[in-house]
């Protein structure tokens, strides 16, 4: 699959540790006309407010495994005890429309895409420091101390994989980080 096109469409892979702000950055990017998110499949339970088919396709472990066996994933990985995967058909359908498709995925998935030679633009969102990341995770107030320590340990190993990406953005200020990524993607002239 060719993830690049001359008219601004193509794949954009966005990763970064939990608390780096990557989800908020992706939400800002899909405000730009022609930019959409790929909807992944996952076995993790649905969180409050999440909608099946919009946020994720929520699958049973058995159904997820079937899709793995049928080769329906562009990449898939296990993260924090749950499985996640990018659905080839969803991405191909969006790319065929000339859209810019954002894959918000963790680093093992990126390694698979790189190993398969999937073309695209790969960007890593880095928190200013681990101390700042820890502060943000506490401030979010959604996790126990144990969960925060686990997230921090995952974050450390994810940050060690930043070399897999074409561009690293340090998210000190959300607006500046979005502007930087927009410029890097060549999307600054579009929309708001
Ligand atoms: P969450 O459970 O918080 O929605 O996501 C946990 C992690 O899984 C995040 O780092 C998110 O980017 C990643 N993720 C979501 N969808 C996919 C996917 O399709 N493939 C991979 N490899 N990671 C994913």
Structure description:
The chain has about 190 residues and is an alpha/beta fold. The chain has one domain (about 10-185): Rossmann fold. Helix content is about 40%, strand content about 20%. It has 7 helices and 9 strands, in the order E-H-E-E-E-H-E-E-H-E-H-E-H-H-E-H. The strands form 2 sheets. It has a 5-stranded parallel sheet, with helices on both faces. Helix 1 (about 20-30) crosses helix 7 and helix 5 packs antiparallel against helix 6. It is globular, with a radius of gyration of 16 Å. The protein starts with 9 loop residues before the first strand and ends in a 7-residue tail after the last helix. The mean pLDDT is about 90.
Q: From the 3D coordinates, which CATH architecture would you assign?
A: 3-Layer(aba) Sandwich
How much of the polypeptide forms β-strand, as a percent range? 15-25%
Q: Count the domains.
A: 1
Mean pLDDT: 92
Rg computed from alpha carbons, rounded to a whole number of angstroms: 16 Å
- Number of helices, counting only DSSP H or I runs of 4 residues or more: 7
Structural classification: alpha/beta
- In spatial order, strands of the major sheet run 2-7-1-8-9
The total strand number stands at: 9
| Small molecules (ligands, ions, cofactors) in the structure | guanosine-5'-monophosphate
CATH top level label:
Alpha Beta
Major sheet characteristics: 5 strands, parallel
In whole angstroms, the N-to-C terminal distance is 30 Å
Q: Globular, elongated, flat, extended or rod-shaped: what is the shape?
A: globular
Q: Would you list the SSEs in sequence order as H and E?
A: EHEEEHEEHEHEHHEH
Low-confidence stretches: none
Overall helicity: 25-40%
Q: What do we call the CATH topology?
A: Rossmann fold
């Amino acid at each position: 699959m060719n993830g690049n096109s001359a008219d601004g469409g193509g794949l954009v892979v966005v990763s970064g540790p939990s608390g780096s702000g990557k989800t908020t950055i992706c939400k800002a990017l899909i405000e730009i006309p022609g930019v959409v998110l790929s909807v992944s499949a996952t076995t993790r339970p649905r969180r409050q407010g999440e909608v099946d088919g919009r946020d994720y396709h929520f699958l049973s472990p058995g159904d997820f495994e079937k899709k793995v066996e049928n080769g329906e994933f562009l990449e898939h990985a296990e993260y924090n005890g749950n499985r996640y995967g990018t659905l080839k058909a969803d991405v191909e359908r969006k790319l065929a429309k000339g859209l810019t498709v954002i894959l918000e995925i963790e680093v093992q998935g990126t390694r698979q895409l790189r190993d398969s030679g999937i073309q695209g633009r790969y960007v890593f969102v880095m928190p200013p420091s681990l101390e700042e990341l820890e502060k943000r995770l506490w401030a979010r107030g959604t996790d126990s101390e144990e969960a925060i320590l686990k997230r921090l340990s995952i974050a450390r190993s994810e940050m060690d994989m930043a070399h897999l990406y074409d561009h690293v953005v340090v998210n000190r200020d959300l607006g500046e980080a979005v502007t930087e990524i927009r410029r890097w993607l060549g999307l600054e002239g579009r929309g708001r």
